């Protein structure tokens, strides 16, 4: 029947949305958001002690100091519990004069099993090479705008990975339940007992009493029968 087939179709579509599409969106959104962050970190310049970074006039960068080995995956974290590295850093401009470094904290990044802690912000004066020294530690240089928007990007990725699959999954679940209702509500009605042609059905629950069966009357010969 058409209604029964429609119920089956809704159940199939709902199951696909709930069990396949929603999880796929969740994994895809996480992968897309994390991969963009990791790619930016991969492209960041790493400075060994005493090396220089080329900056444009007025450009701002964040200096992340190497903070050890990590067993977690690549990515970034942000929070008030992230404190600057205790390592002291100095910087000199293209003219060899010292450049002020402003303490900065709140984020850390991980890449290739290495953890880097946000510690300083450097604002370039004239364009040129800026030499950075942080003791014997290596330094990861990231654009300030990228770092400032890092929390928003991570939050947006998590929001997309949770809300969109939830909506798709609930839609699929609703279709699946609707299909079950359609399928089960299309059962054929129970068969009623038949009645004699031209007759009328007895009232509900009433059946006429059975008449006792009379035995056949035997023919007896009388006294005048020959």
UniProtKB/TrEMBL annotation:
Domain of life assignment: Bacteria
Name the UniProt record assigns to this protein: Uncharacterized protein
Positions of the UniProt region annotated as Disordered: 75-114, 190-226
Transmembrane feature ranges: 12-34, 158-181
Composition bias type Polar residues, residue spans: 80-91, 102-114
Keywords: Membrane, Transmembrane, Transmembrane helix
Extent of Pro residues compositional bias: 200-215
Compositional bias per record (Basic and acidic residues), positions renumbered to this chain: 217-226
Keyword Transmembrane among UniProt keywords: yes
Keyword hit for Membrane: yes
């Amino acid at each position: 029947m058409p209604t029964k087939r429609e119920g089956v179709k809704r159940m199939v579509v709902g199951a696909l949305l709930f069990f396949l599409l929603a999880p796929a969106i969740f994994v895809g959104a996480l992968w897309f958001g994390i991969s963009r962050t990791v790619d930016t970190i991969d492209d960041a310049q790493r400075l060994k002690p005493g090396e220089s970074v080329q900056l444009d006039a007025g450009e701002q960068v964040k200096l992340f100091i190497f903070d050890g080995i990590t067993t977690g995956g690549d990515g970034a974290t942000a929070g008030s519990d992230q404190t600057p590295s205790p390592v002291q850093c100095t910087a000199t401009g293209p003219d060899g004069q010292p450049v002020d470094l402003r303490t900065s904290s709140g984020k850390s990044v991980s890449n290739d099993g290495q953890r880097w802690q946000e510690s300083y912000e450097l604002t370039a004066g004239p364009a040129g090479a800026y030499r950075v020294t942080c003791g014997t530690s290596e330094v990861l240089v990231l654009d300030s705008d990228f770092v400032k928007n890092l929390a928003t990007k991570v939050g947006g990725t998590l929001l997309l990975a949770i809300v969109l699959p939830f909506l798709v999954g609930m839609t699929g679940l609703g279709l699946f339940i609707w299909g079950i209702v359609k399928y089960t509500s299309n059962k054929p009605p129970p068969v009623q007992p038949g009645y004699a042609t031209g007759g009328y059905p007895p009232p509900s629950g009433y059946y006429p009493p059975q008449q006792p069966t009379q035995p056949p009357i035997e023919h007896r010969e009388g006294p005048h029968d020959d």
